[in-house]
Amino acid sequence: MRLDFNYFTKLIPQDMYSRTKSHVCKYLAIFEPEEYVTGEVLRADDYHFLLFFSEGPETRINNHAYKPRRGSLLVIQPWEEVFGVPDDNKKSYDKYIHIAVEKSFFLKVAKEAAGGSEYEFIRIHNAYSKQLLDLIGSFQREMMDHGESFPLMLEGICIQIVFQLLRDLSSDTSENRSRLSKDNKYINKAIQFMQEYYSTNISINDICKLIYLSPCHFKRVFKEQTGQTPYQYLMRVRLEKAKEILREKDYSIEEAARLCGFVNSGHFSTVFKRNTGMSPSEYRKLDF
């Protein structure tokens, strides 16, 4: 594990970094820049999370565009290409918080959050919570008052911050939904539809008719908000439901496939093994 984030601070223009409030330990760093880096492609190791206090510039991650709003939380994974689009009108934006989490530390905490499995982001764009802001404040106070004199205390706070980041990004609570739903009610409606009718032969066209959006526009906006295509999200819902059924051990593989909306047991087995690394039969033999 590295002992600092010097590699990252070198990516930021020095005059900008000199005006940036920062608190850095070996597990994570919290920066409060006064402006955004735009017009440059940046790549960095580790996991990076951006918390927006107001509207931010359009941000492209691996050429996929995101338009942050007040309350938005956005994650950038290791070595993804990030590009802040310059504003032609030279619009000024308010401060934001940038959290950098050391990669091996993040993966260790995330694996526990995933119950021992490899963690996979359900969303890369959601809303941050008051709990996360409180934990950030605790980290900053600890660093200002004691530095790294109490490593167990500091590590504990950092672990809580990572857990809260993961919870905020995966949260579907009414509080988080309301903060992003003003412009994305149709996405929430689509998600609700998939969660209710995953067992039927629903299609993208069925969903688009329900929310009155063109398939092309729907796919683009859905991926912007969830980090997945509609098809990937629907498959994820079906697989999670299938795991529940397999754990009960009261249904055959064929019945589990039918109850979860798969074309047939062969298709179900192929998708299941591709996503879990084991067949449905192997999964149901596990000791839950």
Q: Please, could you describe this protein's structure?
A:
The protein has 288 residues and is an alpha+beta fold. Helices cover 48% and strands 14% of the residues. Helix 3 crosses helix 5, helix 4 runs antiparallel to helix 5 (151-170) and helix 7 (185-197) packs across helix 8. It is globular and about 60 Å long.
Number of strands: 10
SSE class: alpha+beta
Helix content: 40-55%
Distance between the terminal alpha carbons, to the nearest Å? 34 Å
Low-pLDDT stretches: 173-177
- In what order do the strands lie side by side in the largest sheet? 1-2-9-4-7-10
Total domain modules: 2
| General form | globular
Give the CATH level 1 class of the largest domain: Mainly Beta
CATH topology of the largest domain: Jelly Rolls
Q: Superfamily at the CATH H level of the largest domain?
A: Jelly Rolls
User: Which CATH architecture of the largest domain would you pick?
Assistant: Sandwich
Largest sheet features: 6 strands, antiparallel
Report the sheet-strand fraction: 5-15%
Radius of gyration: 21 Å
What's the mean pLDDT score? 86
Q: What's the SSE blueprint?
A:
Elements: H1 6-9, H2 14-17, E1 21-24, E2 28-32, E3 41-42, E4 47-52, E5 59-61, E6 64-66, E7 72-76, E8 82-84, E9 96-101, H3 103-113, E10 125-127, H4 130-146, H5 151-170, H6 174-180, H7 185-197, H8 204-211, H9 215-226, H10 230-248, H11 253-259, H12 265-276, H13 280-284
Antiparallel strand pairs: 1-2, 2-9, 3-8, 4-7, 4-9, 5-6, 5-8, 7-10
Helix pairs in contact: 3-5, 4-5, 7-8, 11-12
